[in-house]
Amino acid sequence: MSAADHGREARAGWAMSAPALAAIAAFFVVPAIASLFLSFTDFDIYALADAGNLRFVGFRNYERLIENPLFWKAMGNTLWFVVLGVPFIVALSLFAAMLVNSRWLKWRPVWRVALFAPYVTTLVATAVVWRYLLHTRYGLVNYLLSLFGIAPIDWLGSPNASLPAILIFVGWKTFGYNMIIFLAALQTVPRELDEAARIDGAGWFTRLRHVTLPAIAPTVLLVSVLTVAGMFQLFAEPYVMTQGGPAQSTVTILYFMYEEGFKWWNLGSGAAVAFLLFLCILAVTLVQLKLAKRGGAI
Amino acid sequence: MSVRRWSVTLLAAFVTLLTVAPLLWMVSVSFMAPGEAAQFPPPLLPETPSLENYRTLFGTFGIGRFLANSLLVSTLATGLALLFTIPAGYAFAKLRFKGRDATFRLLVAALVVPGQIGMLPLFLELKAMGLVNSYAGALIPWLAGIFGIFLVRQYCLSIPDEMLEAARIDGASEGQILRRVVLPILTPIIVTLALFVFLGSWNDFMWPLIVLADQDLYTLPVALAAMSREHVQDNELMMAGAVVTTLPVLILFLALQRFYLSGLLTGSVKG
């Protein structure tokens, strides 16, 4: 190939990628970096009207956040979402994947698609549906529980039940996605290995622990990290189902950021929240990379 | 063996029923008369199915307008995303140019950064450009789809170089090669990507909530969320609203699920 051809190819390469790269730079990279700068200013409703009111305030937004009990409440709630939600959702997804992967299952594609369906539904619409399903008096969930003699639970009205209630909804909404990832991993586990363990008399749980889980460990890690990232991004769920309540028990970091930025128009403070959120997600990603390296997955 | 076969299948049927029950109930309640669902035990089927709630939604609440907004925003978002992403994905896979690999590594690293991080500055940026409170403002984030570039690139890597070389020797320009040789091969991944963007922009909530202040511009999720805050008690009406909001994408997914699920796995390999 001649030098002219190389030049032509390079020019075409830049021309074809330039529009996308320009859009990514202008609407993704620049705003993400600007978030850090914005967090060192007192950008508020007055600055929104006239940029002349904007002042550089150093770390004052961060200092104020540290003193704000609602910020710590939001951090704490998000931590609870992670601590309770990740094991719950990973277990649910793995159970569904193993069920659909079972060699005795008939009509596999039907179950796979039906179990995945909640993932593609509109979050706001199904949150509205679940708010009704979880209704204390008329909801289907409390009706089913009543068949087992369980007294009605005030799912969305009690500060102790609201977070688990949202988690049940999030689990229902997202397990299908993780199930598909787990299914792909399970299909790489040799059937003979499982069969040999069975012939040796290993029970279902023993085989899960000693055959299946070690074989799909990197996928369990991947799904866990994806779920943690998902928990950091909960917003529409509390917005629609509880409006952050009761007693601020479902205010997430993102919900807090939204209220700081677009309800009270404290954009400087909101940007500080966004940057802290970024640090949290970065930390989780680094931990994942470290674990994956140690586990030999990379 | 056949007992086992049936017990596993029965368990799968039961789990599936539990999973789709909320959606079935949503549809059932949407056909109930106002107030009918507020009973204990909750009725499973409407006594006399009626379209009353849908009439109220389209008549009194003008949900048709929001449906049209959603259709417009999602269709434009899909078209623009394809226009920006496909040439870039192809270029990163098949055209050699300086800085290509370094740029691509940066893009992959940026995949872990959620878009919400830059939402406040993006709002200010669009405000300065005069795009806040317009359809264009709602579309903008879909232009910057790193994941789409990644998806197209992965697919393009399997195109044999000889094929492109042959077209070059025949005198085709790079643009012609993309249009006539590459695009036909990419059809499956284009369907996948279009489906991802259409569903993603249809279901999106936080950004349109922020950028669309004027009620006439609301997309369905934003309108439904606003309605659900005012009409907490009108369960039957809200279920009908949820059906109008989510049924179009659910049907679209069921029709094209093969493309969706295969793309999902290409995407998750990145981790």
Record the SSE blueprint.
The complex is a heterodimer of chains A (298) and B (271).
Chain A: H1 3-38, H2 45-49, H3 60-67, H4 69-101, H5 108-120, H6 123-133, H7 140-147, H8 162-186, H9 191-199, H10 204-215, H11 217-232, H12 236-241, H13 253-263, H14 267-294
Helix pairs in contact in A: 1-14, 3-14, 4-8, 4-11, 5-8, 9-10, 11-14, 13-14
Chain B: H1 2-30, H2 52-59, H3 63-94, H4 100-110, H5 119-128, H6 135-139, H7 146-156, H8 161-169, H9 174-203, H10 206-211, H11 220-230, H12 235-255, H13 257-268
Helix pairs in contact in B: 1-12, 2-12, 3-7, 3-9, 7-9, 8-9, 9-12, 9-13, 11-12
Structure description:
With 298 residues, chain A is mostly helical. Chain A has helices at 3-38, 45-49, 60-67, 69-101, 108-120, 123-133, 140-147, 162-186, 191-199, 204-215, 217-232, 236-241, 253-263, 267-294. In chain A, helix 1 crosses helix 14 and helix 9 packs antiparallel against helix 10. The radius of gyration of chain A is 24 Å and the shape is globular. Chain B is an all-alpha fold. Chain B has 13 helices and no strands. Chain B has helices spanning 2-30, 52-59, 63-94, 100-110, 119-128, 135-139, 146-156, 161-169, 174-203, 206-211, 220-230, 235-255, 257-268. The mean pLDDT of chain B is 92. Classes of the chains: A mainly alpha (298), B mainly alpha (271). Chains A and B meet through helix 1, helix 4, helix 5, helix 6 and helix 7 of A and helix 1, helix 3, helix 4, helix 5 and helix 9 of B.
SSE string of chain A, helices as H and strands as E? HHHHHHHHHHHHHH
SS-derived structural category of chain A: mainly alpha
Task: Please state the average pLDDT score of chain B.
Answer: 92
Number of helices of chain B: 13
Largest sheet of chain A: none
Largest interface: A-B, 98 and 100 residues
Dominant shape of chain A: globular
Helix content, binned percent of chain A? over 70%
Number of strands of chain B: 0
Bin the helical content of chain B.
over 70%
Task: Profile the largest sheet of chain B.
Answer: none
- Count all strands of chain A and give the number: 0
- Our estimate of the beta-strand percent of chain A is under 5%
Low-confidence stretches of chain B: none
